[in-house]
UniProtKB/TrEMBL annotation:
Family: Belongs to the ornithine cyclodeaminase/mu-crystallin family.
Protein's UniProt name: Ornithine cyclodeaminase family protein
Pfam hit, one: OCD_Mu_crystall
Gene3D superfamilies recorded: NAD(P)-binding Rossmann-like Domain (3.40.50.720), ornithine cyclodeaminase, domain 1 (3.30.1780.10)
InterPro entries documented for this protein: NAD(P)-bd_dom_sf (IPR036291), ODC_Mu_crystall (IPR003462), ODC_N (IPR023401)
Species whose genome carries this gene: Bosea caraganae
CC annotations in GO: cytoplasm
Length: 323
């Protein structure tokens, strides 16, 4: 059993591990199956079940089960709690059980940051971030590690949540963070816009008209918070994995897929293809680009692999008997 926090991963380590996993996906050195959902029907939430495998040199298969329960804050719990199981793809032997909560937060933030690395303007200096859940912290932290923003704006539905989020970021990043009272003042005119809201049902809260030309936009809420017209202004549409984005009942661009606005014909690339150098990322300053990532099992496994190797070097973790 591996305690993620004890590893004290650096921003560079997190991004590097996930980026290596994306590159392997782009080179088709992986197997990935679309996520599945288990809805127990007794609370406002569901479980995500993610599955995938890497060939050498990572040489691991993995299954992550993680909950997504919107009202957990009322019990003082994170909305996302879960576990990652890593196994040998050659014989099925379990290799490690890793806390999936912190891992999910970090790998999600890394995918957002890697997307910006390849798709945002190099001179991006203003970030607008909607949402204050666990993944939000790592979105902002890892993005700032790459861009050193002049202005960071954050907003979320509950005042106590957004105020605490802004204070934590300001303390950890050593710079002022602007907590806004509404969506518009948070995202309008920003160079990079991340929408990680927690809506109970789809509602167009982020307006297309607020997105400036040349911006990089990352919507990944479980329920859509964007207008159907958002994809119309985009020069490029990028996803993490088309197989899982084109199916399922959840996701920020589900309506866009159903309407044909996002399809195999309109899709520019999967992120792994760009990281692997097989397709171009941003090519012009005036391109307005959208990146939708639903969350990859491969990112979980790639980061889990790095964690396992670091734990072995540092002598961390607990050995469990398996027979």
């Amino acid at each position: 059993m591996l305690d993620v926090e004890a590893l004290a991963l650096t921003d560079h380590e997190i991004i590097g591990a996930v980026e290596a996993g994306l590159a392997a996906q782009g080179r088709k050195e992986t197997v990935i199956e679309p996520r599945m959902h288990l809805q127990p029907g007794v609370a406002n939430g569901h479980f995500n079940v993610l599955r995938g495998a890497f060939r050498a040199p990572i040489n691991l298969a993995g299954v992550k089960v993680i909950g997504d329960f919107v009202d957990n804050y009322k019990e003082g719990l994170p909305s996302e709690l879960g576990l990652l199981l890593l196994m040998d793809p050659g014989n099925g032997v379990p290799k490690a059980i890793i806390d999936g909560s912190h891992l999910t937060d970090m790998r999600t933030g890394a995918v957002t940051a890697i997307g910006a690395k390849y798709l945002a303007r190099k001179g991006s200096k203003v970030l607008g971030h909607i949402g204050a859940r666990g993944t939000a912290y790592w979105n902002v932290r890892l993005l700032d590690s790459l861009f050193d923003f002049d202005e960071i704006r954050v907003h979320s539905r509950r005042k106590e949540s957004r105020d605490a989020f802004g204070a934590r970021l300001s303390a950890d990043l050593g710079k002022r963070v602007i907590v806004t009272e509404d969506w518009r003042s948070c995202v309008e005119g920003a160079d990079i816009v991340v929408e990680a809201s927690r809506l109970n049902q789809p509602e167009p809260m982020l307006r297309t008209e607020w997105i400036k030309p040349g911006a990089f936009v990352v919507p990944y809420g479980t329920m859509s918070a964007v207008e159907l017209s958002l994809t119309d202004i985009m020069s490029k549409l990028v996803v993490d994995d088309w197989g899982q984005c084109k199916t399922g009942q959840f996701g920020s661009l589900r309506a866009h897929v159903e309407a044909g606005k996002l399809s195999e014909q309109t899709l520019h690339a999967e992120m792994g293809e760009i990281v692997a150098g097989l397709k171009p990322g941003r090519e012009r300053e005036d391109e307005t680009i959208l990146f939708w990532h639903r969350g990859l099992s491969l990112s979980d496994i790639a980061l889990g692999h790095f964690m396992l190797e670091k734990a072995q070097r540092l002598g961390l973790g607990q050995r469990l008997r398996y027979a």
